[in-house]
Amino acid sequence: MKKENTINVFEQKQVRTHWDGEQEKWYLSVIDVIEVLTGTDRPRKYWSDLKAKLRKEGSELSEKIGQLKMPAPDGKLRLTDVADTEQVFRLIQSIPSPKAEPFKLWLAELASERLDEMQDPEITIDRALEQYLKLGYSENWINQRVKSIEIRKELTDEWKKRGMKEGGQFATLTDIITKAWSDKTTKEYKILKGLKKENLRDNIYPVRYKIVG
DNA sequence: CTCCATTGTCAAAGGTAAAG
DNA sequence: CTTTACCTTTGACAATGGAG
Predict the structure, then answer these.
(1) Which of A37, A66, A93 is where one domain is finished?
(2) Which residues 41-80 in chain A have a CB closer than 7 A to strand C?
(3) Are residues A117 and A207 in the same domain?
(4) pLDDT tens across A115-152, in order?
């Protein structure tokens, strides 16, 4: 039974998380997520309303959310509504928030943070390039990407300034692109926007930067 | 959305009694 | 008398749902 409670930080706000070693899943305090996303000082009520709304709309999401003991402000363990990363992703879509996208980044980073290679930015970049190759990007394009490492560093530094852990950011971007960016695959997104594949990143990147910065 | 009352849960503290 | 085990109380908070 490997289980542990940890505190992670998104934009200087605490999000209580719980690592379930058996299921290899992260559970996040829904209350904390909502607080971060909406900025409300009454996340409990917001969550309550949202839950009711989801129920009304026939979503099974609210029922699937369980409760775990999380450390409360008084230092005691209390039952708190929690959701795994997948559920949180869906939850985010129900919350209108300018922070939704950066939060997805953060979440994806969290999900892969357990991997040791996250520590070294160079390795993460290498991995990302591998991913690009797998995705069929031309080597030429990848070479251009390598050249734009300064941009990456700039972005990383920006994140760092805002209290995010170094490393993982670029892998996070890869995660988003390869897995679950806006709930669409890269391909679908490309088709959706009518973009050439080579241009995809260049369209995403400035947006990310704008949101974060 | 805010404010408020209610309900249930929790951890710690206090009490009591049986066992060493 | 001291330790251990169990029970009750207490204060705080999470969650809920109604009212404005």
Answers:
(1) A93
(2) 44-45, 47-48, 51-52, 67, 72-74, 78-80
(3) yes
(4) 433 344 444 455 555 555 555 555 555 555 544 444 44
Q: Which of A101, A155, A100 is nearest to A124 (CA)?
A: A155
| Contacting residues for A28 by C-beta, under 8 A, at least 6 apart | A15, A16, A17, A18, A82, A83, A84, A85, A88, A107
- Phi, psi dihedrals of residue A111, rounded to the nearest 5°: -65, -30
What range does the domain containing A104 cover? 100-212
Which of A93, A118, A136 marks a domain boundary? A93
State the SS3 of A88-123.
Answer: HHHHHHCCCCCCHHHHHHHHHHHHHCCCHHHHCHHH
Nucleotides of C under 7 A from a protein CB: 12-18
pLDDT digits (tens, 9 = 90+) for A35-80: 777 766 667 777 777 776 766 665 555 556 666 767 666 556 667 7
Residue type, A159: W
Any strand B atom closer than 7 Å to A79 CB: yes
When comparing pLDDT for A81 and A153, which is higher?
A81
Q: How far is CA A16 from the centre of its chain?
A: 15
